[in-house]
Specification:
Blueprint lengths: L4 H22 L1 H4 L2 H10 L6 E6 L5 H13 L10 E4 L3 H17 L8 E6 L6 E8 L5 E5 L12 E5 L7 H8 L8 E6 L7 H10 L6 E5 L1 H6 L2 H9 L5 H15 L3 H5 L13 H7 L6 E5 L9 H20 L6 E7 L7 E8 L5 E10 L3 H15 L3 E7 L4 H12 L1 E2 L8 E4 L3 H16 L3 E2 L4 H9 L1 E3 L2 E3 L15 H14 L42
Helix pairs in contact: 1-5, 3-4, 4-5, 13-14, 14-15
Length: 544
Amino acid sequence: MIPTQAEWAEARAAAMASIPAMVQAEGLPSVLLPYQAAAARLLDRVGVEALSVETSRRIGLTWGLGAYAVLRAARQKAHGGMDVMYISYSREMTREFIDVCAMWARAFDSAASAVEETLFDQGDDGKAINAFRIKFASGFEIMALSSSPRGMRGKQGVVIIDEAAFVDDLGALLKSAMAFLMWGGQVVVCSTHEGVDNSFNVEIQDILAGRSPYAHMRIDLDQALEQGLYKRIALVTGRDWTPEAEAAWRQKILDFYRDNADEELYCIPSATTGAWLPGPLIEARMTVGAPVLRLELPKEYLHLDRVKQASLMEPFLLALKAELAALDLKPRFAFGSDFARHVDLSTGSLMAIEDGLKRREVLAYELRNVPGDEQKLIAKTILTHVRHRLVGAAFDATGMGWTVAEDMGRLFGLRDKPEDAGMVIALKFTEDWYRLEMPPLKAAFEDDQIALIRDADHLSDLRTIKLVRGIARLPTLREGETGKKRHGDHAIAVALAHWASRLPWSEYAYESAAPTDTAADPLGGPDEDDHRPWWKPPLGMRLF
């Protein structure tokens, strides 16, 4: 059962009274929940200038930030001490934060004054706002202010902006706050979300896209529960913890927020309408004049004899070899492939990484009704040609796509995780992958760091990406004529190639353990220095 307002206030007062003794007995890390301690540790690390935190509603992050504020303000200057300024949108939140800091000061036996109410001069217009302050023997202080002060210029220390998505003019506030970094200060921005267009979400997307070099954390309700949130609630409210009680409490919270649960509890900003990438922006990046190679095989392909199959493959493979032969092999390359067999298209995108780190699509293909072995053959041909300049190849591993990735991994090295060795990585798409990896792709479009082959269907594919629950991904509906519908297929290949180009990599001498006997090679064909095109009869008879 969710505590009433009176019950929660009583429990919170009891907890604050007991925390000082717990800190003395158990130490700070044991008193803080893991995510609270992680935030404090991260901020105490040398070199962390700014931290932005996406957080669920009411999980106690401010509690941990209060501990950090006291530890910072109570230190001598020689040990990193400095003033701390806390800003939020309501007077109640600022008073609550200063009460938490007073409690932590008692817990740490820090010499501090009693909480006092003062006036903070905003500077620009001569007006002053109410503020709460605690002074420490170190000479530093913690000041908590409501509203959005514009008079931070000239001040120094740590600034904590809580529920940042809801303050007035966050952009202007951040502009003032970032000046703190010039002289060794810190900026902490934490909030639940308030829509994808809010300045807070824009800041988060800039960090995820690599535009802002600042630290990032994300703590949703389920993560907080896994790390002990409800156990702590049960402790301070005098209830017994059981898995069933925790599940019931979680469900009541979800039922309360209903349609707003994604935004309020799971750090997913509410969606807006429209395409994720504007059409004019996509067209502006389609500057490459190469053709898109397309292959569609008849439905009865697998029932034909091998000679007929080879003859149907020959025009595509000749065109592929010609495009590969024309490539400049000086840049490094990354490859992405989206697998399909019957309904959707299989697509591939090969990108060159230029000296200025711009990704240029130099080869693209689409396959319809092409069996798995033939798809492996095409992928192998491409990767073999660029293998000495290849930094990564990412394959959609959904369904049968895993077999293509696995066989390419046999030849070029399979990595299980992005940080592992190997050139080939198989990906099963998750919401977290879309959330973390699509912002850098959008940043590449916006910053003119990607160039694609001009193609109307590919433009449509990229336009298909929508914000679903605040995250850029493909919707479930398909577009196009019956039997030949598109599902943003090439957009996935581009996203995978761009991701592969950003993975950690190192040059190493990987050699396949596959047999050298071409007759035993399931991906077949003699060495490339053979003068006869290997897919032509009679050699084509042992192609698969």
